[in-house]
User: Which sequence fits this backbone?
């Protein structure tokens, strides 16, 4: 099976992680919520798959383009 990296679209802080390793997710599911400039920005699942790795933790900073989740598709 192939993997797909899910990247942060903004620089911010991980506010809440909505998934865990092993979860089956669908396209459009919210994987986590980032806080940037006092706004909550969801990280959306790009396609159906299974979470194989979460590369960040709640309250950790992330930069635009950082890989935050790895999916097996």
Assistant:
């Amino acid at each position: 099976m192939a993997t797909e990296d899910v990247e942060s679209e903004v620089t911010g802080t991980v506010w809440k992680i909505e998934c865990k390793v092993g979860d089956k997710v669908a396209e459009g599911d919210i994987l986590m919520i980032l806080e940037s400039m006092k706004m909550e920005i969801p990280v959306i699942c790009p396609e159906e798959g299974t979470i194989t790795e979460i590369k960040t933790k709640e309250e950790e900073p992330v930069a635009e383009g950082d890989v935050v989740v790895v999916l097996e598709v």
Q: What stands out?
A: The mean pLDDT is 97. The CA atoms of residues 49 and 73 lie 4 Å apart. DSSP finds no helices and eight strands in the chain. The radius of gyration is 11 Å.
